[in-house]
Amino acid sequence: QIALDAFTAANAASYARIVSDWSRRRAVVAACQQAITGAASTEPGELIADLAGRIEAAGEQAIGESLDMHTVMTRLMGEIEQASQTGDDGVVGVRTRIPMIDGALGGLCPTRLIVLAARPSIGKTALSLQIAVNAARDGVPGGICSLEMGETELAARMNAYHAGANFTRLMRGRSDALDRMVSAWRNDQPGAWPLHLDVDTYGLAGIEARITSWKRRHGIRFAIVDHIGLVEVEGDKSPYDRVSLVSRRLKKLAKRLNIAIIAVAQLNRALEKERRKPTLADLRDSGNIEQDIDVGMFLHVDPDDMDAQPVPVQLGFLKNRTGRRGWQREALMFDGASQTFREQSTEYR
Fold first, then answer.
1. Exposed, middle or buried by CB within 10 Å (0-12, 13-18, 19+), for 137?
2. Distance of alpha carbon 19 from alpha carbon 3, whole angstroms
3. Strand ranges in the chain using DSSP code E only, listed in sequence order
4. I want to staple 222 with a disulfide (CB 3.0 to 4.6 A). Which of 26, 142, 291, 340 is the partner?
5. Can you tell me the distance from the alpha carbon of 52 to that of 330, in angstroms, rounded to the nearest whole number?
6. pTM above the 0.85 mark?
C-alpha cells in the first residue's frame, strides 16, 4: 500500500503546486501572528506597513517574472525581425502545410492555446494528426496526448494520410493499402519522425508532466491533446468547472514551455437539431475556455453534405487574437478514407 501511495513523477506538477500553496499560507499566517504579537508595542502605521510588506513578500512567491520596457521592446524587435525573414506568407510558427490555416494563424505560434472544435465524425482528430505529420515531415518535434485512441489506431491514421491509403483497408491488412504504405516508407520513414505519443495518461497533472518532459527531453514545439472533454481532474467538479480548469492550465503550460498547444474539443448536440454553424458558445461544457484560448478553430459540415465524397468541411476561425476571424469562403475537402484534408484550389501534399 505504501508503494501505491508513493509520490511519482507523473504527479510532480500537482505536488509542486500544493507545496507552493501551503508555503504561502504559512507565510501569511506567520505575518499575521507577528502583527498580533507586536500590536501592543508598535505604532499603528509601522505595524500596517510591516504587515503589508510581509504579505507582499508572500504573494511574490506566486507571481512571475517582471520585465522592464527595454527588455520587452528588445524581444518584440526580435520577433518582428524573425517575421520579416519568413517571406511574403508571414508564417512565423510551425507550418501546418495547410495554406488556409497557415495564412490565418501564421503557423502554430509559441505560447498559443488553439482549440480545434467540431461535432463527432467531422474529422477533427484527422486534421490534428495531419498537422502533426506535416510538421514532423519538416523535422519539427511534437507530442500527442490521445485520450480516445490507442497507439496503433493513431499510427494507422497517420500512415493512411502519409501514404494516401484507405484507412479501413489498412487496418484490415488489405494488400493494396499495405503496398501504398510500404511504397511511401521508401521516401520518408515514419519511424524517424520526431513525434511522441502518450495514450495512457488521462489526468490533467499527468498530461502537464508528460508535455513538460517532452519539451525538456526532445524540444517539442507543439503538443496536441485529444480531447479535453476526457481529461480527468482532481476533486468533484462539474463539467463546466472541469473544462475551465483544463483550458486555464493548458494555456499556462503553453506560455511556460513556449510551445503551441492544440486542444481538440467537442461541440454541443444542439447544432445538429438546429442545423446551423457553431459559435464559441457551442463549445461543450465550455466553462471559461472562450477567455483562455488564443484561437478557436471550428469545423462544420452542412447536414445535406454529410454523405458527399469527399465531404466539404467549412472552416471558421471564431476567435483569433492575432489574425483574421470568420468562416472561410472555400471549404476544406475531407477524404475520410485516407484521413486527408485538402483545399479545393491548392495541392499541398
1. middle
2. 21
3. 113-118, 142-146, 195-198, 222-226, 260-266, 295-300, 311-320, 326-327, 332-335, 340-343
4. 142
5. 58
6. no
**Taking the CB of residue 305, how many other CB atoms lie within 10 A of it?**
14
Residues 6+ apart with CB under 8 A from 327: 277, 314, 315, 316
Question: Each residue of 266-290: pLDDT tens digit?
Answer: 988 877 778 888 988 888 776 678 8
**Residue 307 — φ and ψ, nearest 5°?**
-95, 5
Rg (CA), the chain: 24
Residue 277 and residue 136: Cα distance in Å, rounded?
A: 32
Mean pLDDT taken over the chain: 84
- 142 near 114, Cβ under 8 Å? no
Q: What does the alpha-carbon distance between residue 176 and residue 260 come to, in Å, rounded to a whole number? A: 37
Can you tell me the distance from the alpha carbon of 303 to that of 253, in angstroms, rounded to the nearest whole number? Answer: 37
Minimal CA–CA distance to 146: which of 170, 176, 125? 125
**What CA–CA distance (Å, rounded) separates 319 from 266?**
16
User: What gap in Å lies between CA 302 and CA 320, rounded to an integer?
Assistant: 23
d(CA 294, CA 107): 13
C-beta separation of 258 from 297 below 8 A:
no
Q: Measured between alpha carbons, how far is 319 from 107 in angstroms, rounded to an integer?
A: 15
Do 320 and 105 form a contact (C-beta atoms < 8 A)? yes
Q: Where are the alpha helices (DSSP H) in 224-311?
A: 239-257, 270-274, 289-292
Task: Tell me how far CA of residue 2 lies from CA of 9, 119, 201, in angstroms.
Answer: 16, 44, 22
Label residue 326 left, alpha or beta by phi (over 0 means left) and psi (-120 to 50 means alpha).
left
